[in-house]
Each structure stands twice: as C-alpha cells, then as structure tokens.
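Reading is simple: each integer encodes one residue's backbone shape. The lines below illustrate:
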Amino acid sequence: MIALCLMVTALRCATSPVTIPPPANPTFRALAEDPVVHACFANILVRGLTRQEAESAAWVVLKVDHYECIVWSSTGYRAEVTFHGEMPFGVVAVVHSHPPSLPKASLKDLETAKQLNVPIFAVTPLAVWVADPDAGILPIVQNMAWARPRVLLSAQ
C-alpha cells in the first residue's frame, strides 16, 4: 500500500524568499493542454473550491492512446489530501487543488513527486504549478482563468 500525503505548509510558503521562477517546461504545458487532462484539472479545481477550499486530487493515467482521470475518493482537508491504496498502473501525474491563497506547489509536493517519481500538479483558479522530481517547482500558468476550455491553448 502506498500512503500518499500532499500537504501545504502555510508557514513555509509565507516565509520562503521570493524568486523569479524559470520558464515552464513545454512538456508539462502540453500535458495540461490535453483536453482530457485539462478537464481533469478543472474538475479537481471545482471539487476543491466547492468543498470550502478542501483539497481534492486525482491520478492522471496514460492508457494505450489516451489519458484518464481517476479522482481520489479520499477526504481532503484545507491543507492536505491523502490517498491510501495502490497507485494505478500507468500514472503519469497527480493533480490536486490548492487554496487560492497558496497557488505554488509546495516542498511537500516536491517530496511526494520524488517519492512517486511523477509530477505533482497544483491547481487554483488563476494558476497551475508543477512539482517535478527532476525539474523542481515550476509555474505552468499564472494569473489567468485557465480552467475554461481552450484557455491554455489560446494563451500562447
């Protein structure tokens, strides 16, 4: 069994120095622009916001020729969502919601990404960030309402 815990530490985020993030990796953006993955990200965002800012999460799984979104049935809290069970075969990423006040993927997200060896995407209404085991924490979308269909595609 894998116990996966994605946590946001408000104190750590609030006290970290402000840095200028590097440009987003085009591979991450391409994944986020896939229509099924984009819909998955938007679904997780809505679930997180409608649950009074409780985090929600999903696995992004690559099937033979398409992606699938497997939403976690676990309970999330404001700063954490946990999955207990086996990671599905074919997982290429994890997506989870963050409170709007903490859009950036956290150091705990990065730790989890390294542990699972898959990128962990954090979504809020105006931003998408990724914590990648190799590339670190990177912005994918900032300061735009990305969740509407085709917004990522038209923002280039």
